[in-house]
Design a protein that fits this description.
mainly beta, 0% helix, disordered C terminus
Length: 103
């Protein structure tokens, strides 16, 4: 899976492109060119995404966070803070959202 945020970090309400790229693992890309390996799982119609701590391209630290990705009424994926932070999600063996749900 590939998740591409439009900014250098995720924040509540930020847009994110979700793509099933056929590759194993989970790439999380940010608008400044930074890429990290995350973990994800489906949760009903939403996706839970865990992003590890990293530094932006300008060197600013970003803490590890867990995000809940949901579709907006316009069909775009948007991030919301998940109620939990820290380890525990796994992209391995997690069911993939239906291909028709991905954009």
């Amino acid at each position: 899976m590939r998740f591409a945020f439009t900014h250098s970090h995720a924040f509540p309400g930020s847009r994110v492109a979700v793509e099933e790229d056929g590759a194993e693992g989970c790439l999380v890309e940010f608008g400044d060119g930074t890429t990290v390996i995350g973990r994800w799982r489906c949760d009903g119609e939403a996706i839970e995404l865990e992003i590890p701590a990293y530094r932006t391209a300008r060197g600013n630290p970003v803490d590890a966070r867990r995000w809940r990705l949901v579709r907006s009424t316009g069909g775009e994926w948007r991030s919301r803070r998940s109620g939990q932070d820290g380890p525990g999600l796994s992209g391995e063996g997690a069911p993939s959202p239906a291909r028709s749900d991905l954009r």
